[in-house]
Every structure is written in structure tokens, then in C-alpha cells.
Amino acid sequence: MSSEVLSITGLTKSYGSKEVLKGIDLKVDRGEIIGYIGPNGAGKSTTVKLMLGLEEGYSGKIEIFGEDIAKQGESYKRRIGYIPETSEMYDSLTAQEYLTFVAELYGMDYDDADRKAKQLFDVFGLAEVYQSRISSFSKGMRQKTLIVSSFLHNPDLLFLDEPLTGLDANSVMVFKEILAMFAGEGKTIFYSSHIMDVVEKISNRIVLLHGGHIVANGSFEELKSQSQEGSLENIFNQMTGFHEHQDRASEFVSIVKEG
Amino acid sequence: MDNFFVLRLLDVFKPLFLKMGVDYMTMRRILQVKLTMDQRRKPTVFNQSRKKKDKPEKNEFFKSLWMYGFFGLMLIPFLFLRDNYLFQVSILFSIFMFIIMTTLISDFSSVLLDLRDKSVLATKPVNSKTVSMAKLLHVTIYMLYITLATTLIPLLVSLFFKGILFTLLFLVSFALADIFIIAFTALLYLFILKYFDGEKLKDIINYVQIALTVGMMIGYQVVARSFELVNLDYTIDFAWWQLLLPPMWFGGLFDVLLGGGRSIGSMILTILAVLGPVISIIVYLKMIPDFERNLQKLSSQTGKKKASNKWKVFRSLHMLVSKDELPFFRFARIMMKNERDFKLKVYPSLGFAVVVPFVFMFNSYSIMSFEEFAASRSYLSMYSIMLVIPTSVIMLAHSGSHKGSWIYQVAPVKQLGLINKAALKAFLFQLFLPLFLLVSVMFSFLFGLRILDDLAAVLFAALIYTAVCFLAGGKELAFSQPFDAVQQSGDIKVFLLFLVIPVFVGLHFLALKLPFGVAGYAILMFAVNWGLWKMLK
Fold first, then answer.
1. Does the structure show a pLDDT above 90 at A119?
2. CA-atom Rg of chain A in angstroms
3. N or C: which end of chain A has fewer CB within 10 A?
4. Can you spell out the DSSP letters for B378-399?
5. Beta carbons within 10 angstroms of residue A256's beta carbon
6. Which range, A131-135, A148-152, B260-264, B339-343, is most confident?
7. Could you give the angle at the alpha carbon of A115 between the alpha carbons of A136 and A133, nearest 5°?
8. In this protein, which residues make up the domain named ABC transporter (chain A) (predicted)?
9. Are residues B125 and B271 located together in one domain of the fold?
10. Quick check: B223 and B236 in contact, CB under 8 A?
11. Residue B306 placed within a domain
């Protein structure tokens, strides 16, 4: 079995006359944690949506698990887990109802899903609310529900879009550990976020998207040696050509202060 | 989660679905989840913390079904009209299809055009055929309930008086008509989705809804009249355009199967009654992947909106919109303009409101000469324009982004009631007034300027009615409630509010008997408005 899980070649995508992705090439191997970063509107979500088949009408080639997704049905999604940025769920359902439903969509048996989901909820300290409606949950509880729903069917490839939103510091530590362990077992994680410290720490490769192109692709050490900047945040600023944060900040403050 | 009775009923058709390439168990599961969610009213932002004990869940929807039973009573007289199947069945089906189709486009379009499912369902290994089928069945299930509620009493009556054969054929025809309506509407949306883009698409869907409502109103008149005008014997000569009127297909069906009609026209109509629904549903099923793909367009925002200055005038009209109300007024106006679900539910009734006055009027016109007519009081049908108010006012409390309403509580607003007052005014200026002016101008041409005082009275009455509708509603803050998948714009409250309209007409009619009565009535109405709107908080 080839170790290549994901391969994108010459991917472009336009909305009307606006070209969002201008030729993306990317290969990802088993067990990698890819930190997928870029400024707002760089096309990160679009890439993920295309890979999940949420959007169509691109040119180029996307291969997942060695097969072109345009040529196969939806069965490849069976081995994928996804945490959407928008944290959309059917929140009038209880956590139990929602999680078992999603697991069944992935082809799991109801009883297995129910048992596993309950145990996972227990691990997160949420055993008590397992049968409460999601709409009554706090932000952190919702996020944990999403995390459970994306891992429940034991996927091989995970697309995580800001998965830490709303989690407290302890849960963040647990979750980072979880990711590291899964990566060690050969699961591939595609992690997009704007929180640079976290991306810097957990990813073994960082891919920076800017203006529809990949402008950097390598480990944190490699990026650091390329740009001579200290932190990923600084590297990010430099690569996206942004130097005026000081000016922008003082402009903001002065506008707020004036009458 | 309940194992719904309908779902068990659906299991009978399992092989059929499997044959179509639908993953039956998954579809059933999706439907089960959807139906469960429909039963639960989503709590709003402000009562989120309230612990919800699972009370016996009752779908709001079922509470409103009795109203359709009431509508169904209208069908009964036509059962006994004359022993002419072609005529009575055609009329009966035009009413029936009218009820079903208006319900479908105003209450269930949002289900057909739903995008919220995308991130939950489309990311899972479920094929789009299964998802669309679940969606279609979700709508169909509700349409069947409505059909049953509407036709139950007529069916029982026909069982007593017309025999079992008639009743069975009746039942089958209703089912065929339902299938046709759903597939036709879905196909129409598909067609629009295919050729238009983003923002424009949303507008066009709204226009189509208005056009459909208006078209059906007129179509109904045409069916009814095609009998009277041609021949008083209620026999009808076959004409090609009758093939375009689906209710007549069923008239033909009954004529051939029960009435012994053997004319070519009836034969063709009969064939269409069967082929129309079957072909439309097959075409729709074939086009499903297309539908889902194009649906995505609804979410894409293309083009920037130009800021408009035309409402700046309200900044200086403090009499109409006070300074405190102005921000909310502006906000409500924009929300109404952009909120797709609001438009889906309200716009069809706008079309309705324009046409109804004329329908009422022409019904009386047909028995008078033009001179008599122009001198008559038929313009009182103008009051029926008020039909648009209850639904709109109730819908104003809802929004797709209802969760954003926390801002009302957080911002230092002196009187939260101002939000509603401003929203009502925004509705009046944005939607009601243009409509009212349009109909007024047309009526002034027909009846002359002598009716100006009457028109003023109608306007003031409508303002009072708006306030009344609001006071009768839940008084929730504007845009603070979620739209449920099955929200009844025609719930009991709306229906009861309709009954208030004749009261205004009655008062106006009395005023007409007195010298300067109408002017007095208008002034009185104006004064009541003054007080009422001052009170409104």
C-alpha cells in the first residue's frame, strides 16, 4: 500500500470571474499532521470543501487514498472525519441521537456507535449531558460533540477546521495529545487554524496558502531557516507580506477615540 | 426517537427505492431524524439555559391540520353540483390543487431549497440521490397529511352518496395530483437554479412564487368560467388549452371512467391525468443530482449590493418614524429584503393580495353592466388586500439568523418594544404601501376619484389591523425566533385574524349609508390609529 493518502495536482477553482485557487499542488503521506494556514479568504476552506465533495466545478485532480474523487462515488468519505468551522449540527437532537445518526451515516451499527459515543463523552467529562439536547450545550460542549462525531467511525483521514474553538486549556491539551497519538498510528490529519502557536506545536508539516497559491510548504524548522523569523506568527506575517500591524493598530485605536 | 408510523408505511416501498439506487436504510434514518427535529421547537437564544425536560412532543403542524379540514368543506358542494363529472371534478380539483400548491410553495419551499444539510450530510458517505429522496419524501409526507386533512370529509361524504368506486378513484386522483404538484414545483425550481445564479436566483424564486400564486388564482377563474361562458348547460367544448389545466385532466379521468364519456378530449385528458404525474416524477428523479449541484449556488454571494439612499427621507419624518425607532426601522427593512425564508413565506401572499380584490370584484361584475358596476360598491373588495398582513406580521418575529438577536439585550436600548414597532412600520412602508398604492391606482381608474375617501379609510383600517395582528401575536422581538422546517404560515391564529377583516368591511358599509359617513369613518379610523400606535410598545 502506498503511503500517499492525499494528492492534489494543479487544482484551480473559480467563483464566477474570481479565481480563488490558482493551481495548488500538494502531497500528504500517512501519519502526517499538516498545519494548513493562510490569511482570511486565502482559499483554505474551499480546498477542504472540494476534497469533501461539498463543492464541485474545479479543474485539476484530487486523489484521496490513491483514487481520483471525481471518478468514484461517495464511498471514500467513509474513511474521512470532518470538523466544520461553522460547527453546524442538528442541535434540536440530543447528543446521543445526533452522534448515533452520524455514525450510522458512516455505516456503523447503532449499538456500537451508541456504546462508543457514550464512552467518549465520558472521557470528556460529559456523561451527564449525553441525553440532553445539543442546543442547550455551551460552546465547548458543542465542540466536543463535533470532535466525537468526527472520530467515532475511526477514520483514516481527518479534516479539522478550527477544532479547538471554545475548548478550555485542559481539553486543548487532551486533544493535542489525541492528535499526536493518532498520527503515530498512521492517521493523517489536515489541520487548518488561525491559532499559530498551536499549529506550530502540533504539525509536522506546515502549508501556507496565500492568494490562491501555496507559498510555503515544509516543517516549522525548514520555514524558520528560510525566513529567519522566530515564531510561526512572524513567518506568517512575512510570507503574506504583512508588516504594518503596528500602523493598523494605532489607526484603529485613534478612530475609536475620535468623537 | 420515535419510529414513525409513516416510516413503517414507507417500508412497504423499500424494493422500489432500492431499485432506484437509493440507500433505503440511510434515507429512512435521515427522515426519522428530520421528523424528530420537526417535533421539537428549537429553543431561542434567551431560554437556552432553561433545562428542557423532554415533554410529550407534539408537532405544531398537527395542530393546524384541522384548518385544512375546514378548507376541505368547500369541496363538498361540488360533489353534488350536477351529474357532469367533467365539470364538477375539474372545479373540485382546481380548488384542491390550489390549496395544496399554495401551501407547498409558501410553507415547504424552504425544505426543498434547504442548504443547511450540506455540511452535516454531504460530508458523509451518503449519495446525493439518497439525500434528495429523503428531502422529497420529507415534503411529501407533510403534503399527504395536508391532503388527507383536506379530503377526509369530502371522501366520507362521497362514500355515502357516490359509492365506493367513486371514492377510490377520488383517492387515487388526489394522490396523482399531489405527486404532480410536488414534482412540478421541484422541477420549476430546478429549472431556475440551472439558469440563474446566486442573488438573482433568490429573487427569481420569489417572483416565480408570486407568479404561481397569481397564476393559480387566475387559472381557477378560467376553469370555472370556461363552463359558464361557453354554455349554460355546463357542457363544454373541447379546446386545446384545456390540456394545460391540470385540474381538467382529472375531470376527464372521471368523465371517462365513471361518466361514460368517450369524447377524444376526455380521452386525452384521462391519459394526461396518469402520464402527467408519472412523467414529471420520473424526470425529477433523473434530474436529482443536477438539483443538488445547482442548489449550492444559493449559498454563493455574487456581486455587491449598492447602498441605496432612497429611504433617507425617513430621517426627517419624525412623525412617521421617530428618532429612536430609526435604527431598527432601517435594520428591519434590510432584514426583510435579505431574509430568504421570510420572502419565501411572505411573498406568495403578496401576489395573492394583489389579485384577490380583483377576483372578488369581477365576480360581482359578471352580473352587472359596466355603468352599474362603476357606480357600485364593489370597490369594498379592496379590503381583501389586508389578507397579506397577518402572515407577514407573524413572520416578522422570525429569522434564519435569529441567534443574532442577543444584540438587542446587550445594547443599551431603552425600550425593546421599539424594535417591533419599527419592524411593523418597515413592513408597512416596504411591502404593504407599494401594494396598496398599486391596487388603489387601478381601482381609481375603474371607479373614479369618488372613492378616494374610501381608499383612505381602507388604508387606516389596514394600519389598525396591522397593530391588531401584532397584538394578537406572540409579541416576540422581531427576528428573534427561528424558522422551523414546517412552520405554518397558515396556523389558526392567522385564520382567526382573517375573520377580523369582514368587521372592517361591515363598518365601512354602514358608514356608506350615512351622509359624509365615509369621511367620518376615515377620520375615526385615523384617530384610533393615532392612539393605537402611540400605545404600541
1. yes
2. 20
3. C
4. GGGGGGGGGGHHHHHHHHTTB-
5. 7
6. A148-152
7. 10
8. 6-236
9. yes
10. no
11. no
Nearest chain A Cα to B482, which residue? A92
pLDDT of residue B45: 38
Q: Does the CB of B263 have a partner CB in chain A at under 8 Å?
A: no
- Angle at which helices B198-228 and B164-195 cross, to 10°: 150
What fold, for A4-246? Answer: Rossmann fold (3.40.50)
Q: Is the dihedral of CA A46, A52, A56, A59 positive or negative?
A: positive
For residue B118, being part of any structural domain is answered with yes
Whether the CB-CB separation of A138 and A118 falls below 8 Å is answered with no
Residue B523 has pLDDT above 50, yes or no: yes
Burial of residue B487 (number of CB atoms within 10 Å: 0-12, 13-18, 19+): buried
Highest mean predicted confidence (pLDDT) among A101-110, B397-406, B476-485: A101-110
Residue B232 has pLDDT above 50, yes or no: no
Q: Which residues span the domain enclosing B395?
A: 315-535
Q: B411 lies in a domain?
A: yes
Cell of B185: 414545483
Beta A18-29 vs A157-161: how paired, if at all? unpaired
Length of chain A (residues)? 259
- Can you tell me the distance from the alpha carbon of B202 to that of B438, in angstroms, rounded to the nearest whole number? 24
Picking from A86, A92, A102, the nearest residue to B40 by CB comes out as: A92
Query: Which residues of chain B does A135 touch, with a Cβ-Cβ cutoff of 8 Å?
Result: 42-43, 48
Least confident of B142-151, B207-216, B224-233: B224-233
The pLDDT, as a whole number, for residue B49 is: 35
Total domain count, chain B:
2
Q: In chain A, what are the domain boundaries?
A: 4-246
Could you report the predicted ipTM of this complex, rounded to two decimals? 0.79
Is B305 part of a structural domain of the chain? no
Residues B238 and B124 in one domain: yes
Nearest CA in chain B to A129: B51
- Percentage of residues in chain B with pLDDT exceeding 70? 80
State whether B359 and B231 are in the same domain. Answer: no
* Facing residue for A104 by CB, picked from B29, B52, B123: B29
Q: What is the DSSP string of B214-274?
A: HHHHHHHHHHHHHHHTT-TTS-----GGGGG-HHHHHHHHHHHHTS----HHHHHHHHHHH
